[in-house]
UniProtKB/TrEMBL annotation:
Claim: Transferase is one of the keywords in the record: yes
Protein name: RNA methyltransferase
Ribosomal RNA large subunit methyltransferase K/L-like methyltransferase domain location: 173-335
GO MF annotation list: tRNA (guanine) methyltransferase activity
InterPro entries linked to this entry: RlmKL-like_Mtase, SAM-dependent_MTases_sf
UniProt keyword annotations, A-Z: Methyltransferase, Transferase
UniProt organism field: Dictyobacter kobayashii
Pfam families in the cross-refs: UPF0020 (PF01170)
Biological process according to GO: tRNA methylation
Length: 350
């Protein structure tokens, strides 16, 4: 028997996250993509969904309502959909993912995008009121830190109500002890690794590795021959070393200038990197000079059939520099990072 689940991702990375789900659990069937959500059916055990790398959170679906109207009647619809939901099988899924533990406390988390004639809080209250009737008496409603979280999500007429199977370690990872200001979300780094079409023969380079997130996530996705990384800042390199150690991943890390790498020509098969961008790091002019120097060096060290996956908010600038330097972009994935749009480019030499 297959059950309905959904994965939450960074908005823009839904299809990519679903491709990982499909590759990991082949019998999965897509039901629908929504903004930052992939809704799917699968007969797999719920605990298998907790090992995904590109997904931020996973839910067992209690209700999927299509075409919810904006008016106040909608609150009654939310209430009755919650009352009619199969809470016990969703809780059973939660328990499987938590080594059989029994939840003692619960709460409702609500998220709403788009305009409705009611407030997010009122929508959350409609769901809470219904759950008070169906939750086992032994479980207590709390404000924060609940064992069991029921999330209500409203967006563009679709509503999802689900039991959250994952916890914060799914998106934040346990290895990531050290951060730098421009550090990438692990799920985004994993998405870049996924877009680089991983093979066990890969020699992967992140020339501007920061806290090491991209290389660590690539190694966690699957086997790799070798991983190399470096950063201009030696303290950052030390921090990447500590993260790599805590993730138990083998990466050769050095302090270097990515514009002049101590690597042989054509010595790596994949470059996966998060370029310094925007106001966060460097001005536009500085970025242009840096990007031009970087692409020449990347061109030198990447093997002839190699692939480059790069992330930047300086979309137009990077696009132009890639074209001017004889690169072809096979795919571009646009999503939102730190409140601004960013693009992941999958490129090869033309
Ligand atoms: C956007 S951050 C990378 C963040 C990294 N992906 C992470 O998750 O932590 C860019 C990094 O490039 C480094 N950097 C800037 N210019 C560099 C250069 N010329 N050579 C090497 N590293 C450089 C910065 O020190 C910074 O750590």
């Amino acid at each position: 028997m297959s059950d309905l689940f959904y994965a939450m991702t960074m908005p823009g990375l839904e299809t990519l996250a679903f491709s990982e789900i499909r590759a990991t659990i082949p019998e999965t069937e897509l039901v629908k993509f929504m903004r930052g959500i992939a809704l799917f059916r699968t007969s797999t055990l719920p605990e298998n969904l907790l090992d995904l790398h590109t997904t931020e959170d996973v839910f067992a679906t209690l209700a999927h309502i299509k075409g919810l109207r904006r008016g106040p009647d909608a609150l009654r619809v939310l209430h009755s959909a919650t009352l009619n939901a199969d809470l016990s099988s969703a809780v059973a899924s939660w328990r499987r993912g938590h080594h059989g533990a029994r939840p003692r406390t619960w709460r409702v988390v609500s998220q709403m995008t788009g305009s409705y004639d009611f407030r997010r809080m009122d929508a959350g209250q409609a769901v809470t009121d219904a759950l008070r009737k169906s939750m086992p008496r032994s479980m207590r409603l709390v404000e924060d830190d609940a064992d069991l979280e029921i999330w209500l999500w409203l967006g563009g007429g679709d509503v999802l109500i689900g039991v959250r199977l994952s916890d914060a370690t799914m998106r934040h990872r346990q290895y990531k002890r050290e951060h730098i200001p421009a550090s990438l979300r692990p799920t985004v780094a994993a998405s870049m690794g996924w877009l680089a079409r991983p093979t066990a023969e890969d020699i992967v380079l992140d020339p501007l590795c920061g806290a090491g997130t991209i290389l660590i996530e690539r190694a966690l996705l699957g086997p790799v021959q070798q991983e190399l990384g470096g950063d201009l800042n030696s303290q950052t390199v030390n921090l990447a070393r500590r993260n790599a150690r805590s993730a138990e991943v083998d990466i050769s890390l050095k302090t270097w200038d990515a514009r002049s790498l101590p690597l042989e020509a054509s010595s790596v098969t994949r470059i996966i990197t998060n370029l310094p961008f925007g106001k966060q790091i460097g001005t536009r002019e500085e970025n242009e000079a840096l990007y031009t120097a970087l692409i020449r060096e990347f061109d030198r060290v990447l093997a002839p059939k190699g692939l480059m996956v790069s992330l930047t908010s300086e979309d137009r600038l990077w696009d132009r520099i890639l074209q001017e330097n004889g690169w072809r972009t096979q795919k571009k994935v646009v999503f939102v990072v730190l409140g601004q749009p960013a693009s992941i480019f999958v490129s090869e030499r033309a």
